[in-house]
Write a structure and sequence with these properties.
This protein is of the alpha/beta class and 482 residues long. The chain contains 19 helices and 16 strands. Bound molecules: adenosine-5'-diphosphate and 6-O-phosphono-beta-D-fructofuranose. Adenosine-5'-diphosphate binds next to helix 2, strand 11 and helix 15.
């Protein structure tokens, strides 16, 4: 790979969230690393590829002087902020993206469409299009990410044309794309899909999402989809493919070598001597199946009284989208269930559940992954789930077992190396946990080696480079098959 730098094509990444989020602390603006799968995967690309990253800084900055300061500090990291008024950002991010679109993409029913957030969604996509079209050079590759910006490819193509510029546009979705019937629930579905179809190349995480998208284009827009991996719509040919997103495994193995992490691992091992550790790391989101996880763990404790004080679940629930009521309600519900589980199963010797509702530093995260015998991931739907990859990267020594919901995108690739289960079935989850804790060492090793091979072969760098290479090829030789 290397055509991007060889040809001196500029690469522009666009996502709603920048890799750095800005906050105001005691009146001063400060930035810190953003969390989430998108930032993890794109950050893994920075080692090999140079790009500018456009996005929303996460906060309103009114004063022009402050804006300049924030802009300067972000630009030092190649991050270009697109400033938005707080009410517009709120309606776009919380209102439409997270309260309406996100649940539809994850097969949640009962979503109520509302015109005001939809208009804000359109407006933000327009503001992004204006900013990027203004700053992009003709010939640049523009790679747009995720459901917050589905209208952007169409708006951007338009605005670039008005300015006499021509750029290749790629789009990657980091969530599932639901089956057509479900997608039809959304009254503005056509606009969103037409927006995406103005791209030259569209990437999905799994074959299932890709096929759902192709089927939806055929049934909803009457687009031509007979040629594999291509969609013909309004005289344009769009390439569609699966690109397996991953992590930078070295970042995790390097962290485990650090003396302070080694020390932390030693102290955690000492603390949990004679106790099997199960770890879970999830954003606090409905799709992660956290309610189901706690209830399944409760069932497991009920089923196995002989394991009292011998198993602990350490669950990190990273705060997420805290301005959305559904997320606030979920947090309250989880606290109640966690309290009940410990009320029922705790003894003077210890509590079986450690529920942490906060973000933990990276080195603490890798130490936790490393000492855990099992990683339990219970997504009810999930674009990929990179935590599964990260756990594997930290398990070189222990060969820990991954217990993975069949509804995580990662299950499309990792089922052979993990223990799969249905997250809504408490009995299945309880059995899966028990089997994981009791897997014989040879089978554990075989499963682990399968997973390690997959994680090392499908890195974030490979994902990004492959996508960019295909996008670049697409504009050099548009007729070529995808
Ligand atoms: P999602 O994209 O839905 O958040 P993923 O499992 O794909 O789910 O990705 C979550 C990412 O967030 C992982 O890379 C994980 O390491 C990262 N993460 C978890 N906790 C933190 C944290 N405290 N700070 C930064 N990143 C975090
Ligand atoms: O996985 C989907 C996703 O939207 C990612 O794009 C993002 O990294 C993650 O969820 C966290 O979302 P947010 O940007 O709302 O914190």
């Amino acid at each position: 790979m290397g055509s991007i730098t060889d040809e001196k094509r500029n690469l522009i990444i666009v996502s709603n969230r920048l890799p750095l989020s800005v906050k105001q602390v005691d009146g001063a603006y400060q930035s810190s690393l953003s969390s989430g799968g998108l930032v993890t995967s794109l950050s893994g690309l920075t080692k090999s590829t140079k790009f500018q990253w456009f996005g929303w800084p996460g906060i309103e900055v009114k004063d022009p002087k402050d804006r300049e300061d924030v802009q300067r500090s972000l630009e030092a990291h190649n991050a270009i902020p697109i400033f938005l008024d707080s009410s517009l950002a709120h309606e776009h991010y919380n209102g439409f993206s997270n309260r309406i679109l996100w649940p539809v993409l994850h097969y949640q029913s009962g979503v109520v469409f509302d015109e005001t957030p939809w208009q804000a969604y359109r407006r933000v996509n327009e503001l992004f299009a204006d900013a990027i079209a203004e700053s992009a050079d003709s010939g640049s590759l523009i790679w747009v990410h995720d459901y917050h910006l589905m209208l952007l490819p169409e708006l951007l193509r338009d605005r670039l044309k008005q300015r006499g510029k021509s750029c290749a546009i790629g789009f990657s979705l980091h969530t599932p794309f639901p089956a057509g019937d479900f997608w039809r629930n959304l009254p503005v579905r056509k606009h969103l899909i037409e927006g995406m179809l103005s791209s030259d190349l569209i990437g999905f995480h799994t074959d299932e999402y890709k096929q759902n998208f192709i089927d939806t284009c055929a049934s909803l827009l009457n687009a031509r989809t007979e040629i594999p991996n291509q969609i013909q719509y309004k005289n344009r040919l769009v390439c569609i493919n699966k690109f397996i997103v991953g992590i930078d495994p070295e970042k995790f193995t390097d962290s485990l070598q650090k003396p302070d992490v080694q020390e932390r691992i030693r102290s955690l091992k000492e603390r949990y001597k004679g106790v099997k550790v199960i770890v879970g790391v999830d954003r606090l989101d409905h799709i992660k199946g956290l309610t189901q996880k706690l209830k399944g763990f409760d069932a497991f404790l009920d089923d196995h009284p002989e394991l009292q004080n011998k198993v602990v679940l350490i669950q990190v629930a990273v705060p997420s989208r805290e301005d959305v009521k559904e997320y606030q309600d979920l947090e309250t519900e989880l606290c109640t269930i966690a309290g009940k589980i410990n009320g029922k199963h705790a003894t003077p010797e210890g509590t079986p559940l450690l529920y942490m509702h906060r973000s933990v530093p990276f080195n603490e995260l890798t130490a936790l992954y490393s000492v855990a015998d099992v990683c339990l991931l219970t997504s009810t739907r999930d674009g990929m789930n990179l935590v599964a990859f990260e756990y594997v990267a930290c398990q070189e020594e222990r060969h820990g077992v991954l217990v993975l919901s069949e509804f995580a995108g990662a299950a499309s690739f990792m089922t052979n190396g993990s223990i799969p289960f249905h997250p809504a079935n408490k009995t299945e989850m309880s059995e899966a946990i028990f089997n994981a804790l009791n897997l014989d060492p040879a089978e554990r090793k075989a499963k682990y080696e399968y997973l390690r091979g997959f994680v090392n072969a499908n890195t974030s760098a490979k994902w990004g480079e492959t996508f960019i290479e295909k996008l670049s090829l697409r504009c050099r030789r548009p007729g070529e098959s995808c």
